[in-house]
Amino acid sequence: MLTRLLQRLETLLRTKPKRKTTKTNEQDAPSLVDYSEELVNFQSGNLRICGTLTRPNTDRLCPAVVLIHGSGPHTRDEVIGPHKPFQLLADYLSRRGIAVLRYDKRGIAYSDGDYSASTFYDLADDAEAAFNFLHARTDIDVQQIGLAGHSEGGLIAPIVASRNSNVAFVVLLAAPALSADALLKSQLTTYDKIRGLDDRHIRHNLRLAQKANDIVRAEPNNIIAAQKIADLRRGHFYEEIHRPFMDSRIEELTSNGHRCFLNHDPRPVLSTLTCPVLALNGEKDMQVFADENLSSIKSCLSRNKNALTIKLAGLNHIFQICKTGLPDEYESLPETLAPQVLQIISNWIAKNTMY
Length: 355
Prior knowledge:
Layout: H1 2-13, E1 16-18, E2 35-44, E3 47-56, E4 62-68, H2 85-94, E5 99-103, H3 120-135, E6 140-150, H4 153-163, E7 170-173, H5 180-194, H6 199-218, H7 222-233, H8 237-241, H9 243-253, H10 256-262, H11 266-270, E8 277-282, H12 290-300, E9 307-312, H13 339-353
Parallel strand pairs: 4-5, 4-6, 6-7, 7-8, 8-9
Antiparallel strand pairs: 1-2, 2-3, 3-5
Helix pairs in contact: 3-4, 5-6, 6-7
């Protein structure tokens, strides 16, 4: 009954015209194209995934892009504190002639499923279902549909593009492009240095982290794996004084999503991409470090003549102008997305779709 009521509500709210003249976080330019906003749903296997399609009000077929979230239980707007970066990006692109589909992750908000049990291969299936939904529409240029993935979404977008030759372009936003071990080592070393730990403690923490990941890889039973990790860390000073945090961390380490992440190397997938690719990273990204990940992407795409990598000065992981780049700063910053990021993405898609 609840599902039918939600379906009816979506039908009643569907296709409402948007005419944007107000400012969003003081970043909007004057409206160039009016657009319509439509509540939609599509099937991913036996799951119903719900989202929002913004489409320019034009009689012409228009290019389109599917937005793919970063890690976490995100809704269609990829909410981070007061910020809704996917909503802002959809608004910006659709006022410039590009349709945008964004959706709630499986098991989140209006979408069916169990997010906590999902891997990013499951989430790749959902992203491909979103792509196929657009591909079946008669008001979209089916030759010009692409994917834009942020963070973990930057792992998912190449997976979809590698197995679906209809994907016209890929935008990678702070996308990991190293093995899981290399990425986690880089993150842990950086954070430990910020905490003021000396080299001996940093090496110790790296050994603990590597052993914990090795346990997860070798032990499929979560209860046994969790106990082995707890035994490994017992007596370590930091673990003892942060016991509640570490208990939740063990649960995360043994989750389906983390198990999948540990065994996935994005580089072979990236190397298969032949469509145009734009990769952006913030210089102050403290989660997916710009230099090493952009360098890896550039290497993987060395044979792709339509690949472009850009490091953006002063921006963090979610592409805000920032001071430190640390995650605890995201919510306090007034900006949702730096204007240059919106402009670069919009101009690049327009150029590569010949719109």
